[in-house]
Design brief:
This protein is of the alpha+beta class. The chain contains 13 helices and nine strands. It has two domains: about 130 residues, no CATH class; about 130 residues, no CATH class. The radius of gyration is 20 Å and the shape is globular.
Amino acid sequence: MSQSNNQIGQRQNKVPFTVAITTPTYQKLVNGTLSDPKRARQFVAAITSAVSTNPALQECEPGSVLSGALLGESLNLSPSPQLGQYYLVPFKDKKSGTTKATFIPGYKGYIQLALRSGTCRNLDAKEVKEGELIEYDPFTGDVKLQPIKDPKKRANAKTIGYFGIYENISGFRKTMYMSKEEMIIYADTYSSAFSAKAYEKLLKGEIPQNDLWKYSSFWYKNFDVMACKTILRKLCSKWVDMSIEMRNAYLADGATISQDKEGTFTFESSDPVEDDFYTEPSYTVEEEEEIPEAQSETEEPEEISFDEL
């Protein structure tokens, strides 16, 4: 049975998205999800253009690309990398043996959805530099910081931890702090794309140049960005009054997305993880011969700055 499913998935994977999107089945799904014909046409044009300029997405099953894009559209989030509200990231589905696209909300996407709820006044997360932390109470979560005002000095300072803040319109305020050591342990525990030992070797320059491609997870490429996103997600799961839109984005983050005939989205995570932790889907499209334990999943696009997430 699984062999048959794999064969079907492989055949579907060979159908170009530009062809699949024009079929009656896909057109019905688009029009059913987006009731406005003009919006549907604009969506098809935008996602077709996005796929045509991204070779990695061209290798994905068209249905997974469409499901992820429709979810983003239903949340009124833009797929534009410049806006950084969400991304469609290719990954290798071990069950079907095919390449699929998964929906990854960006840092700005979470903030956008929180602000739309009408109950959020402020939601943000930043890295904390050496010398900025004055006091932290682990029981109340209260944090006192003294920011380094010189931009150049702050940029060159060592990152010692991560701070997040949430405030709602009624005056409720919650802050959160995790040291970098805590975040490394956390990522090592809950993300199979990350290894604390490998990260230490990477920082020390002990990874051979020819092997760097094996450590392409975004946890390795920009640990601070992923750490801040983790702080943000933890705040959202514990304190933010989530709207239906925000909850759907939260559940879909890194999960396999499917959509029924009525347009209802369902999300299935490939690995059991802590409820408030972002998990990357299983391995990237660049998989070659042998993958170390440290890298078994994919990540967000390369060269994205903190402000873009």
